[in-house]
Design goal:
single chain; 396 residues; alpha/beta; Metallo-beta-lactamase, Chain A; Rossmann fold; seven-stranded mixed beta sheet; 22% strand; elongated
Length: 396
């Protein structure tokens, strides 16, 4: 059902309560998501973004209940991944000549997805589109998080920033607004979204958000394309992005491990005890990578000042869960975080060295060469692990 959010702006998106994974199986969405699309009506009417492809017919049908489709003068596509552009083919069958405003790379991506010769109008930062008494201004935001991304600023109704994936969250709610949902849930989902999607491009994000802040735009709302609309103090999510993009860390250490016969788990727990003894104020969290959601783990790594990664040596290598997680961490490009490796082994024992190399390749600063244990650690070895944890904490 459409929801009027300002005098001239109406939400016409789709709330997806059933979504559990996104980007294939790459990102967990425990609280569902939404695909936010907006109608902006003045003398002329613009539709900003559409919804994910599985909901294309539903979207167009509901949109037609809200407005005569032929009265949509412009379509603005801020970013053209299929979760935003997926309903375009169904919509364009109804209104085929409607101009689509997007960046030049946006046009290339739409053509690459749908192979249609629609009426494209390329825009760049500073370009404007008059709707009558109000105006849309386009702000290119490449790599937040695709090359085609842009924001659209609407100067009516106190100022509204349509930010697409920027400032979004995978968070399903019928309440729509940030002040109508659980604040702690919302903050976590916004951070998880940033850590797992945008952190890779943090230097770019920091420059772009600072650029938008410097424009000093009146801002009553921020309307992303996933999750809630920020209407209560919308600047709060901007402030968080400035923090998160600036090599964010809290006073916490994340310990991630996999284990075959509990030896590596025992080492992890002993190391954690040592860290807590040496630095009681530091929060220490332990996760079995084979049992815990991988994106929740990477979110904890994002929050941490240091990480310890452990695995038994298996077939001269690492466990599947740890190997995969290290690959994800490399792609997410965490910055200014310290790390070390640990693990148990039976005969060859390469695991700890392989983890160290992977951590260093992912941009972590190694504290040392790590610690490893032969077979099942006895009390003496566990005491060595505690001492290792104490020394690790002192090195941070």
């Amino acid at each position: 059902m459409a929801k009027k959010i300002t005098q001239r702006v109406t939400w016409v998106g789709k709330v997806d309560w059933e979504l559990t994974h996104f980007h294939g199986d790459e990102l967990s969405t425990h609280r569902g998501s939404s695909y936010n699309s907006y109608l902006v009506r003045d003398e002329k009417t613009a539709l900003i973004d559409t919804v994910w492809q599985p909901y294309d017919r539903e979207f167009v049908s509901r949109l037609a209940e809200e407005i005569d489709l032929h009265k949509i003068d412009y379509i603005v596509m801020n970013h053209n991944e299929i979760d935003h552009s997926g309903a375009l083919p169904e919509l364009m069958r109804k209104i085929p000549g409607t101009p689509i405003y997007c960046t030049a790379k946006g046009e290339a991506i739409i053509r690459g997805h749908y192979h249609e010769d629609w009426n494209f109008v390329n825009v760049k930062s500073g370009d404007t589109l008059s709707l009558g008494s109000t105006t849309l201004t386009f702000i290119e935001a490449p790599m937040l998080h695709w090359p085609d991304t842009m924001f659209t600023y609407y100067d009516g109704d106190g100022g509204v920033l349509f930010s697409n994936d920027g400032f979004g969250q995978h968070y399903a709610t019928e309440s729509l607004y940030n002040d109508c949902v659980d604040a702690s849930e919302l903050c976590y989902e916004a951070m998880k979204y940033y850590a797992n999607i945008l952190n890779t491009y943090s230097p770019i994000a920091l420059r772009k958000v600072n650029e938008v802040v410097a424009m000093n735009l009146p801002l009553a709302m921020i309307c992303p394309s996933h999750g809630v609309v920020w209407r209560d103090n919308p600047g709060q999510i901007v402030e968080r992005y400035l923090q998160w993009a600036a090599d964010y860390q809290e006073d916490r250490v994340t310990i991630v491990y996999d284990t075959m016969w509990q030896s590596t788990r025992l080492m992890a727990e002993a190391i954690a005890e040592g860290i807590r003894e040496a630095s009681p104020e530091t929060e220490v969290k332990l996760f079995n990578a084979a049992l815990t959601d991988k994106n929740d783990i990477t979110t904890e790594v994002f929050r941490s000042k240091a990480v310890l990664v452990g695995s038994p040596t298996i077939n001269y290598g690492l466990s599947y869960a740890i190997d995969g997680l290290l690959g994800m961490m490399k792609g997410l490009k965490f910055r200014k975080k310290k790390a070390a490796a640990f693990g148990s082994y039976g005969w060859s024992g390469e695991g700890t060295k392989l983890i160290s190399a992977a951590l260093q390749g992912a941009g972590f600063e190694l504290v040392d060469d790590g610690i490893r244990a032969l077979w099942v650690p006895d009390n003496d070895v566990l005491q060595q692990c505690r001492e290792y944890g104490r020394n690790f904490a002192k090195a941070l």
